[in-house]
Amino acid sequence: MAKIEEEPAPSAPFWLVTYGDMVTLLLTFFVMIVAMSEIKKDKMMEAMSYFNGRNSVFNNAQPVPVIPQKDPKEIEEEKREQADRVEALIDFIETEGLQGSVQVNYEESTVHIVITDSVMFSSGSSQLLGTAQRVLAKVAGVAADTSNTLTVIGHTDNIPIRTSAFPSNWELSASRAASVVRFLLTQSSALPADHYQAIGRGEFQPVATNRTPDGRSRNRRIELLISLNQWQNQTQQKEREVLTP
Known about the structure:
Blueprint: H1 14-36, H2 41-49, H3 72-95, E1 102-106, E2 110-116, H4 117-120, H5 130-142, E3 149-155, H6 169-184, E4 196-200, H7 213-219, E5 221-227, H8 230-243
Parallel strand pairs: 3-4
Antiparallel strand pairs: 1-2, 2-5, 3-5
Helix pairs in contact: 3-5
């Protein structure tokens, strides 16, 4: 009796054959579409440009330039120069006897200066006093590096003002901050104009109680924030250039 040989088991599931046929048909279909289509050179070059340095889908966008790293010795020298400028400001404050009216806090990346309004302005005014101009001239020297940025913030107490010039403390604090920026821009060591910010906070960020004359005096102040973080400032500037059409 002849022995019936058993058929070998399939090496792959039967559905895989049908799937392979479908994939082949789809590939053939797309090859035909590409072969029959007209390729526009300008569109192709634009598409390829996104793989050749462009990183934005905005019109006229340019690749973000790589900011060169500074030599460590150069960085240390700049830090020493910055510290010397801050020290000169502190010495000036002590010489003028303004220790109780001007505070200077110096960290690695920021100089924070707080000046009470009695040194800066007459009551209800945004016109700088002579003493304020002398102090601000020294502050301008601290911020002399053109890669720095300087933010001026005006504060008041909570007593309403309501004058024709300043209907509220918002306007008074903003006008005082703007007066400071306007003066700093006149100095020989002024930064580029777009490196300044003038902000009015009114009475809404007190540092002391408004229930006592001394507390209200402390709340009426000008704050100056000098950013010394050069990498951050330069990067933000490059981002503005990239996104500008």
